[in-house]
Amino acid sequence: KLTDLYGETFIRVPGSGAYVGGVNAARKEFLHEGVIRVMKGDIVPPPHFKKFNAECKSYADFPFHQLYTGDCKTLDGWLLQALDAADEGDFTVLFMKFNRKGTFIVFNRDHLKSFNLGNHTAYTSTVTGSWIIADLETFFTEPSNVEAFKSLSQGL
Description:
5 helices, two-stranded antiparallel ribbon
């Protein structure tokens, strides 16, 4: 999807997982910037998307009802994985796909004003903070969202 949108190569990390996230963050001290970008998160972005950090999940189902309690352990776990790999100032996103339900993008609520959204859900957790969840297909049909996503990913 991102490769088609931007005409540049975004690659799913083989085996996925953040080689430099969480308890492995110390590895960043010994690695070149390009290697860190490849080992961080689930998607390797083009070189100028320096602030892009993404986690990807694909599952049969998701406990959507827990979003409204502020205690969705599944979502919090995925967001913690993404945040563990993030560097300061990164634009961290979570892409989620669920069988017969659709695909979704999750980003920090601090970026809400950067995007033009229709229907979306706000999720606030004591564990991970405040996030916005939106339909992925609808999100990227808005040209201003495509540009804002790129700008945030480039750190502009």
